[in-house]
Amino acid sequence: MSNSWLGLENDVCVITGAVGGMGLEISREFAKQKVNLALIDLDETKCQQLADDLAKEYGIKAIGFACNTTSEESVDAAVAKVKKTFGRCDILVNTAAILRFCPLEDLPLSEWNTTINVNMTGYFLMSQRFGRLMIEQKSGRMVHISTVASHSPETYSGAYSSTKAAISMLSKQIAAEWGQFGIRSNAVCPCFVKTPLSRKFYEDKAVEEGRTRMIASRRIGETIDIANAVLYLASRRSDYSNGTELVVDGGYEVMLGDLVPRPGGRRQFALDQHAASQAKK
Ligand SMILES: NC(=O)c1ccc[n+]([C@@H]2O[C@H](COP(=O)([O-])OP(=O)(O)OC[C@H]3O[C@@H](n4cnc5c(N)ncnc54)[C@H](O)[C@@H]3O)[C@@H](O)[C@H]2O)c1
Questions:
Q1: What is the DSSP pairing of strand 62-66 with strand 36-41?
Q2: pTM of the prediction?
Q3: Percent of the chain, pLDDT > 70?
Q4: Which one, of 17, 30, 33, lies nearest residue 68 by Cα?
């Protein structure tokens, strides 16, 4: 093991959705740790550019190319390219997903299927094809970006929450089936994070303030918060975590009780009640 805390140097990591909001940050943080990278997204030029930039800035080996994670041919070609370039794959980070808004009663079947295809089938195909390589190697680590919406539904977002709940289960199934081959599979569940996927939510300041109040830590997540969790789960520091979910939400999931109104506000209500009970003593 290397001297650095994470011990990721010289590992080979494949990242899907690499030029998206979270993917970019995750890619950069791996590059800082001297991890060699295969950066995958739909736009070939952007992927290549990112790979070139990171290779130059951090002295790593990086390739970037277009790969549609829903296509068997495209994913198999990606595996071949990674094998040819690096000879192995130590880490897979599944990030590529889509979010399409629509109330359930109006959701066209085509939209439902498209979301399932990208968010579920894409994660499965990437995991299966790179998983076969990891089984041969008898080692590998997978980190799947899920969401807190896999635990409680994000309403009017079509198939999004259902697909993400399925990803969390797929991650656990991979751990259960492939743990014996030295493979670990874990999921990260972010909540509110500012990225191109969510940018439109923050154009309205009232919406941003309302969201901030729902977070125990009273701030919207940054992409670095998620990248830190991904690096930890990809590293040897989490060697005994397999089939887990790491919720990275600033305490969003613990806030439900705090959001239930009480007269005068919850904190003030508690202070008043306490003062009244003390006065009686
Ligand atoms: N942004 C948030 O607030 C938030 C919260 C919770 C979870 N997430 C999850 O984080 C992940 C990243 O989200 P983001 O905010 O960075 O989104 P984003 O839209 O910025 O990035 C997603 C990337 O995936 C790529 N992609 C889409 N379909 C693809 C396909 N078939 N093949 C290859 N690449 C494809 C897109 O081109 C894009 O670059 C997603 O899994 C999302 O569900 C985001």
A1: parallel
A2: 0.96
A3: 99
A4: 17
